[in-house]
Amino acid sequence: MAEAAAALGQFDFAGDDHVVPFQVEGLDVRGRAVQLGPMLDAILERHHYPAPVARLLAEVVVLTVLLGTSLKFDGKFTVQTKGDGPVDLLVADFSTPENVRAYARFDQALLNKAIESGETEPEQLLGKGILAFTIDQGKFSQPYQGIVPLDGTTLEDIAGVYFRQSEQIPTRVRLAAAELFDRDDAGKPRHRWRAGGLVAQFLPEAPERMRQPDLHGGDGDTGSRPHGEDDAWLEARSLVETIDADELTDPLVGTERLLFRLFHERGVRVYEPRAVFDRCSCSRDKIQGVLKGFSAEEIEASQENGEIAVTCEFCSTTYRFEPAELQPAE
C-alpha cells in the first residue's frame, strides 16, 4: 500500500518519537526526520550516563532510528562503534517495525580525565576505531555489515562516508542532542534529554545524475564544487547544512515545521509518521536458553548465594535462575 502524502497544515503534527518520511520533488530528494523525547530520555536515564556519554549515545540512537525505519523487511538494524577513546563502545539497534534499545560502555577514569582537560568532543571521546552498520534479516539470511573508520570526524560525516561507500547514494545526515532543564506541571525542576536528526538522499530518476564527490571532501566539505555534481543536490545539501543543532531538538519547532522551513519553496511533502518505542528484545526464556548451554562447571562458577543472576546491558532488567532450572530436560 502506498504511503499517503500531505502538505503542511493538513494533518496533526507527528510529535516526539515519530519518524517523518519526506520528499522534495523539486530537488529529487527523499529522506526522514525525527525528534526523540520521552523514548530517548527513558533509555539514557535508566543507566544514569554522564552527560558526555549520554549525548554521544543519543546521536547514535537518532542515526539508528533514521536508518532502521527505512527497512522494507522484518529484521534488525544495528549501529555500533568500537574505539580506543574513553567511550569505547556504543550500541543501538532497531527491530522492525518500531522497537529501539541502546547502551554505552565507557572508562570512568579516562572519561574524568577527558572532562578535566576539556576533550569532550564526540571524536575525542570515541577515539580511533570503527563504526559498523549491520542489517540482519533473520536466521535464513546472512547478515550484511558495512564498516567505516572512526577517523576523528563527526558521526554525521562518518555516516555520509558509509552511504557513499556502500550505497553510492549522495546523502547528508544531521544529528543533535541536548539537555533540557525546565519545570514539570507541578513546578518542580526537571531534567530531560532530547535529540533530533535528518537524513536526506538524492534519488533522481536518471541514475547518471547521482554524481558523487570525492571521498576526501565529504558531504560536509564547504570547498569548491565537485566536478559534475548535480545542481539539485548541491541546493538540497546546502539547505540541510543550514540547520542549527537547536532546531533539531527544540520541542517548539517540531519535525514538520523544520522541514517546511528548509524546503517550502521547493514543495516538501511529508508522509505518515512512524512511531518508535523503547523496547528491549531480551526475555527470561532467551536467557534461560543461553544458560542451558553452559557446562556444569560454568553454572557452578556463575552462582552467587545459590542462584544465577543475569542483567541485560540494554534495559537493566535482572533475571534470576535456580540451578535446577538450567538442567537439560530428560
Sequence stretches where pLDDT stays below 50 over 5 or more residues? 6-11, 215-227
Major beta sheet, specifics?
7 strands, antiparallel
The global form is globular
By secondary-structure content and strand pairing, the structural class works out as alpha+beta
Helix content: 25-40%
Elements, N to C (H/E): EEEHHEEEHHEEHEEHHHEEEHHEE
Total strands? 15
User: What is the beta-strand fraction?
Assistant: 25-35%
| Number of contiguous helices | 10
In whole angstroms, the N-to-C terminal distance is 49 Å
Mean model confidence by pLDDT: 87
Protein name: Hsp33 family molecular chaperone
Pfam families: HSP33
Organism: Rhizobium ruizarguesonis
InterPro entries: Heat_shock_Hsp33, Heat_shock_Hsp33_C, Heat_shock_Hsp33_N, Hsp33_helix_hairpin_bin_dom_sf
Description:
This protein is of the alpha+beta class. It has ten helices and 15 strands. Strands 1, 2, 3, 9, 10, 11 and 12 form a seven-stranded antiparallel β-sheet that branches. Strands 8-7-4-5-6-13 form a six-stranded mixed β-sheet, covered by helices on one side. It has a two-stranded antiparallel sheet with strand order 14-15. InterPro entries: Heat_shock_Hsp33, Heat_shock_Hsp33_C, Heat_shock_Hsp33_N, Hsp33_helix_hairpin_bin_dom_sf. Keywords: Chaperone, Cytoplasm, Disulfide bond, Redox-active center, Zinc. Pfam families: HSP33.
